[in-house]
Known about the structure:
Radius of gyration: 25 Å
Structural class: alpha/beta
Distance between the termini: 10 Å
Mean pLDDT: 94
Helix content: 25-40%
Strand content: 15-25%
Bound molecules: 2-deoxy-2-amino glucitol-6-phosphate
Amino acid sequence: MCGIVGYVGDRPVVPLLLDGLKRLEYRGYDSAGVAVVRDGEIVTCKAEGKLENLVARLDSAPLAGSHGLGHTRWATHGAPSERNAHPMVDARGRLALIHNGIIENFLPLKRRLAEEGWAFRSDTDTEVIANLVSERLDGDLLPAVLAACRQLEGMYAFAVLSTAGGDGHQEIVAARQGPPLLLGLGDGEQYLASDPAALLAHTRDVVFLENGDVARITPRSVEVFDGSGEPVERRAQRLDWDPVQADKGGYRHYMLKEIHEQTQAVQDTFAGRIDFATGEVLLEGFAAVDERLAAASRLHVLACGTSWHAALVGKFLIEELARLPVEVDYGSEYRYRHPIVDEGVVAVGISQSGETADTLSAMQAARELGAAALVAVCNVRGSEATRISDATVYTHAGPEIGVASTKAFTTQLVALYLLALHLRRVRGEEPDPALAGELAHLPQALDRVLASEREIRQIARRYHRARDFLFLGRGINYPIALEGALKLKEISYIHAEGYPAGEMKHGPIALIDPDMPVVAIATGERVYDKVKSNMQEVHARDGIVIAVTDRDPEDVEDVADEVIRVPRVAEWLQPVVNVVPLQLLAYHVGVRRGADVDQPRNLAKSVTVE
Ligand code: AGP
């Protein structure tokens, strides 16, 4: 999932492009590059690896220009290398193109172009688009881009600039089919980017392009067309994030900053949506779907990665509190299993970015198969998931820059709790002030667990050399065990698995030895004794038990080597508190092992291709 930026205007373009790429680097860091038009020529500068390599190259050979494109890459077609770095220049040197996505029919197109004498310098699908546009370029970039789009199959967000308009003519043409692309509106200057974070420092007025849109921006104009070249209206929106939120705020890493922002993020997510006196939940925009929610016979909840773990907690909450059956599916699996969808099904897509292709395609499949409604739980206003849905519960986590999702996860759990209470209400139950009131205890509980970071750092120091970890949880905390394992894998590259604690004796217990740290989540009443006996099973085999518990240390010290105390809150909200020590453990183990915790290898923040 690459990052795209572009600018037309009077200001020196390269510093603007680099600033935008800096804010998009979490989308991919295999290579980076910029292209400008200078003296009627296309000039590029590219470097393999992180953005700092490109910055160093530009420091030693500065590049000037007034309009340009920038790209940070997550490799799909063609290995991470300078040769495959974007921007791609066509074989005739008349245009430069940057792209995010995958062209599924690039090989037959490449073969045809090569047979007609077009040269190729890279292994990328993107270079095919560049030559396709150049093939039809006859002075005007827009019709050439429209013609190229008609031949493409797959996912693409691309932008192209050319020398066609002659010296001094500034124009960028961009097209979107799948991955996100938005325009930033300025006064005598315009921007484009894959993600609002890259524009915040310059403008809050943006236009989100729809699938099939082709846009042309010049310093004084922004036009959007459909695939046949007919003008279309696109409403400008004002972003509600501010640039400061997208900075590190004095923390060493975005991940640590975002872990410590969870108290505020959770508070912001339920603030103004709960009437604590009556227990009423107020979800903006749900009046349109409430009838269908009331009539629903089951929910299909669709998500990937950390959001899928939130979906598993959501199943627990909705089935317990609203007595509505919930099926949870990985976005990448859903449509290929021919799910049984009828008018009794409401589909819920959970996605921090709102741009995860697997989740989006599952949501669209549910719609096509006849789901009564689509609901999104999402953190990014204007993102695709919110646009294809009938209603959205926004998580108010603010921009999440660290690739490993933390505050978005805890706010997703709170949003799902609100959704469960809302479903309970529209399905005929009276609002319950006690259930609503439980939320009010969360901020203080989060502050207390965040204050135990020093102890967790000590535990990380003792076990950061471990080769494997096991995470155990039961009931509503089983997904938290999965999430703890995922965070450790993502951040430290240690092999880790999450398991329902009761499942251990059916196999994974064979892994237990004196070098295997086992993190066990032992909180609440319902299954505490069961988890305690699972800790005893590990202890009996000399495994290392790290207990996350709301009990006094004495209660577990007979079976635990390490104890992480967490405050007790309502059982349904305990996962919001229990995950924080696991995030901190993963963070400090990762830092101790010298891993790049904000940009772990091979990962990207939002996965916009299937
Ligand atoms: C989590 O830390 C990862 N970044 C990843 O698993 C992520 O949760 C997944 O790609 C889903 O992203 P989304 O919530 O933006 O759809």
